[in-house]
Amino acid sequence: MKNKVIFGSLAATFVAFMLYTVSLRHVANTSVQIVNQKETVKKKKSKTGHEPNVEAVEFPTHVKVAPGSNSDWTKQIKKVMGKDQSYQVSVQDLNSGRFARVANSTKAHGVSSTSHLFLLATIYYQEEHGKLSQREAIKIKKADRVKGENILQPGIAYAVSFLKQSLLRGSKTAGNALLRKVKPRQINAVVKKMGATKTKFNKKYMSHPRAVTTAADLTKIMADLYQNKTLNRQYANSVLSSLHLNGEKPQVVKNITGTTIYAIGDKRTNVALVQGHGHAYCISVWSNSDQQFAKLGKIFNDFFK
After folding, report:
1. Which residue pairs, CB below 8 angstroms and at least 24 apart, start in 200-203?
2. Alpha-carbon distance 121 to 117, whole Å?
3. How far apart are the C-alpha atoms of 185 and 62, rounded to whole Å?
4. pLDDT tens digit sequence for 100-154
5. In the 8-state DSSP scheme, what is residue 279?
6. Which of 141, 136, 161, 165 is nearest to 153 (CA)?
7. 3-class secondary-structure state, position 84
8. What are residue 228's phi and psi, to 5 degrees?
9. What contacts 78, CB < 8 A, 6 or more positions away?
């Protein structure tokens, strides 16, 4: 009887051991399956991960020339601007209609001081249509005031004419006040009338960038002013006169003398309307460097002598 009990205990122990072994194997196999599943998921993620948008990348070597561009002008633009920087150049003879548009960047780019052209054109457009007067006064608010500027004081009203002058002298406070009066949507509507379809003024004057545009759009705006299309002669000339009287000239006209120049610009964007020697032409340029702007402007002025 005692042997039977011992044998039964051994048999039970053996069966339990076998069941335990099978259980371990099952767990081990289950673990391997889980790991394999994780590895499979990782591989799927690597295949479907975020890819860079190649179409959004612009390469300096991909130069595009607008159909009908003057071949001699095109060659000069390519030669001066080179292959190491992004750029847009637009030149137009305002008398004959000859032009050249050469670029290795097609999108609209941010501008700072050049945006004053859009704001001024809209102010004079509203004056022409009786929606604004240069004698009208705009009170400076605390929110308009830019740190470090002391000419315009909060609580004091200044005439629109004075604010325009202050704007061209670099007053950001004046820009804030004028933009409260002349809304960004109105600026965008006016420049669109002038043919600038890629130009957009942001909601706030202190935005970075303040506005976006292209070299081609800048040429269209200047040509529109010269030809008195959107603004009549009096108000179009007022815009150009404001640019002419602005003391600081951009790089693109730095080496040009003996002509009448209407120009505005910043470190990356310049636009100028040049009259002299019986000619009138517009040149505008955007680039990530302004090192070649002066040379480019001089070469094209020589074309018109």
Report:
1. 200/108, 201/115, 201/118, 201/119
2. 6
3. 34
4. 999 999 999 999 999 999 999 999 999 999 999 999 999 999 999 999 999 999 9
5. E
6. 141
7. coil
8. 55, 45
9. 63, 102
Q: Which CATH superfamily is 54-132+183-303 part of?
A: DD-peptidase/beta-lactamase superfamily (3.40.710.10)
- 3-class SS of residue 219: helix
User: Which of 262, 263, 265, 267 has its CA nearest to residue 290?
Assistant: 267
Structure tokens, 98? 């000859």
Q: Where are the domains of the chain?
A: 1-48, 54-132+183-303, 134-181
Helix (H) or strand (E) holding 122: helix 116-128
- CB contact burial 137-161 (16+ within 10 A = b; e otherwise): ebebeeebbeeeeeebeeeeebebe
* Calpha distance 98→276 (Å, rounded): 17
pLDDT tens-digit series, residues 77-99: 999 999 889 999 999 999 999 99
The answer for 259, left when phi > 0, alpha when psi is -120 to 50, beta otherwise, is: beta
- Global pTM value: 0.80
Radius of gyration of the chain (CA): 34
